[in-house]
Amino acid sequence: MFVRGVRVDDEQDDERLGYPWSVPAIRAFTSLEFTRPVTFLMGENGSGKSTFLEALAIAAKATAVGAKDLGSDATLAGASRFANALTILSKAPKRSATRLFFRSEDAFGFTRRVEGGARELRELATELADDTKASESARKRAAGYIEGQRRALTARYGENVHARSHGETFLEIL
What we know:
The protein is mainly alpha-helical. It folds into 2 domains: 5-101, no CATH class; 106-173. It is built from 6 helices and 5 strands; from the N terminus they run βαβαβαββααα. The strands form 2 sheets. A 3-stranded antiparallel sheet has the order 2-1-4, covered by helices on one side. The protein has a two-stranded parallel ribbon with strand order 3-5. The protein is elongated. It starts with a strand and ends with a helix. The mean pLDDT is 81.
């Protein structure tokens, strides 16, 4: 476990008005220590569980699996404000190389992202093939590189990433 806990910085400022600070559990949160590799958060709908996890992921600089990166996902604006107030407590001398944030709704966003990446690579290869400014050998080298990237995506996720069930997609990603 590279995260042993999380705490809210003591500084209070004007940004701590409105959402997510209007959620009682978020407003009252001071710190949480993780003593086991798995932690369950339980509570009513709207109690702040997802906002807390999203903020923790943002504060830990996790990689988002979904359609957008955490920093560019407008739906996480409130969680980002909360993340700015968090300090991650780590006992590991260096941060984990893999920090992944994955919500159930991200499975389909991820498949769309992979599909879009493969499509963009195909389009780039076609555009490059038609580029008369580059030499033939340069076009071939670049096309080979691009095709290798597309093949790597296909080998990892298949030609049709939507051909798997929701559960199969989760397991493949994990």
